[in-house]
Predict the 3D structure of the following.
Amino acid sequence: MLLTLIISTTILFLAAASYYDLKTGEIPDKISIGLVAAILILSIFQALTESPGFLINAVLFGTLYFAIGCISFYFGHLGGGDVKLLAGIGCSVANIPAGSFIPDYLVYFIDAGIVVMPYMAIYGLILGFKNKTVFFEFAKEIRTLKIIMFILLSFIPMFMLIFLAVNIEIVLIILCALLPVFVLLTIYLKIVEKKAMQRTIPVFELTKEDTLAEDIIFEGEKIAKKNDVAGLTKEQVDKIKELAKGGRIPDKITIKWGIKFVPVLFIGFLIFVFYGNVIEVLFI
């Protein structure tokens, strides 16, 4: 009963978050943080009625997913709202059995990954066509020695499985085969982020939760950081506007935004709940 309630609650919150993300490009804290709070409260009830392990798992998985989200945010793949939502998803999937030989906490990322690669590829291509310098920079980037070596290294796990391992699961081969694609997509999206997902605005247009493209430093003090998951606070916005009004910092500022990623998180969760490891379903 409680497990069904946890799943239903997560679906409702993710559906609402997807709506806001597609409509406004932002996810209200009442949804992202609300999801974490709601699932933890339900996990407490589950721990009291069944086993304390349910709450422990929820906290551990939520923390793990949040940490993974923070890393993705740092590299420009997720927005701050996405990271907080991911923490809530981690709390939720913690006690949902996936029925796979792969650990449950990895299965969700596999399912979301199946969705994310075509989604992000299409999204990135659309932005690339709108900003032609993206393709030029990508072609230039993949010709550098460092990137060539990185791409070649991404093929090693697949070749090792094929030629050295015995009695291996086809799922592992498929996952390893997708690794080079993921590497190329990551490189491309980093260029998209730099060239097509930033814009310079007058400081007076700056709003709470905007994400900066660069740190703002005044007289040795870091007023705001570019890699802040929560985005700008109201106090930081007021401070920046005050400094700009006084001519102490430039009156224009560059902000960035991420790909509207919440629908991927939502679809990935639905696949996880109803199918478990989707690669096993499709290929085994």
